[in-house]
Amino acid sequence: MSAPYRLYYWPIIPGRGEFVRMVFEDAAVPYEDVGRMPESEGGGMKAVAAIMKGKGEGFPVYAPPILDHGTVRIFQTANICRYVAERHGLAPEGEGPRAQALSLMMTVMDVAAEAHDTHHPVAVSRYYEDQKDEAKEAATAFLTDRLPGWLAYFEAALQRSEGDYLMGRSVTYPDLGLWHLLEGLAFAFPNGFARAVADHPALQKLHEVIPRRPVLAGYLESDRRMAFNEHGVFRHYPELDEDG
Amino acid sequence: MSAPYRLYYWPIIPGRGEFVRMVFEDAAVPYEDVGRMPESEGGGMKAVAAIMKGKGEGFPVYAPPILDHGTVRIFQTANICRYVAERHGLAPEGEGPRAQALSLMMTVMDVAAEAHDTHHPVAVSRYYEDQKDEAKEAATAFLTDRLPGWLAYFEAALQRSEGDYLMGRSVTYPDLGLWHLLEGLAFAFPNGFARAVADHPALQKLHEVIPRRPVLAGYLESDRRMAFNEHGVFRHYPELDEDG
């Protein structure tokens, strides 16, 4: 029997952990979602806190999401997605295409980080409420100057692909990541996102078809899928989503 | 003869491109630094601009650094470093250690991105001069709340390693990246960096020994190595480095 996959992520938000869950769920690969397991079974917030920032045994890690797989302990969201996807049929074959897929997934995570930074432009270590004015300015700059370029890029990548998906005719992990990114943006900035995606038919199509994948649909409709909220990467503050 | 490596990056700053150059130079692998070649030979700023953001032929890319290698076109700094390092003896062997090394390199690039954001906290699309007050606040938060945690993490990773380097007894690409990160931080925040690194002997040792590597030393002492300046990722604005 092969070693179990153990995902460590905060239990109260979808956050970056959700990008990893998307890969496990779509591939129908069993995994332990440690942060959401009871403390009596070695889970919960404490278990996540215990292995972060290099504490505890094993390869030191900086921040969740963290994946344990036998003696392998890795972190960085795009890297975990890549690792799981390459082992379970959600990555292209070959060194070149695999490196290209990783470029795409890392870029998805860059957009997620920028979306996060709109509500914490001055310092992630301080409260949103203490940087609201700067957040308004940062959100406007994100929606006006940055998001259109990112989405135009992904639209071009889909258009240029030889199939309906980023890497061709098969779904690979950057497609799942891009879909979840679109979900997060639509939650955080319903107005801004609607405007930004309006002229991008390939993105709209991806946004529609991914949740129809049979295995994944079961997960998305289940209560295992957490709702977005105001503690995670994507937050809906109506004041940051006004018409610019 | 194998396909040449062609690196596309802005010619006027070390920037993120320098992390890639470190790998090529240390491995003594020839590469074309397209942005720094004459326009008459198909190089220069125009050549970099031409292939970014999905324009032109080939796999669409969002931003430099970009690497062309035969039919493979990839982007994202840590991914390019990984790709080259795994082909030329600067990555560990095995799927698990390789994934761990990538975690480390991606984290190096996260710190670089946060260092960059101190001078552009509100919007990368606007001038530093228009966000100086927020930059002062962001730099203080970075030096006080964030950098100590990052450096403590890398110190712990070096201490926990079975050798002098992050992945053990041999230098791998995250060591080269971490070294260049330390150089950039020391340039941008001489006071803040000196304080932050004071209690970290393993980091100090890495900072000392990497430039003594014979092949790399030749590069670092050459005029091919660009100086840091006020246009790149790491910028020295004395007002952002006051004693907190």
The order of strands across the largest sheet of chain A is 2-1-3-4
Cα-based radius of gyration of chain A, to the nearest Å: 18 Å
Distance between the termini of chain A: 56 Å
Structural class of chain A: mainly alpha
Question: What do you see in this structure?
Answer:
The structure is a homodimer of 244-residue chains. Chain A has 244 residues and is mainly alpha-helical. Helix content of chain A is 50%, strand content 6%. Chain A has 9 helices and 4 strands. In chain A, strands 2-1-3-4 form a 4-stranded mixed beta sheet, covered by helices on one side. In chain A, helix 1 packs parallel to helix 3 (77-87), helix 5 (132-160) runs parallel beside helix 7 (190-197) and helix 6 (173-188) crosses helix 7 (190-197). The longest helix of chain A is centred in the middle third of the chain and has 29 residues, at 132-160. Chains A and B meet through strand 4, helix 3, helix 4 and helix 5 of A and strand 4, helix 3, helix 4 and helix 5 of B.
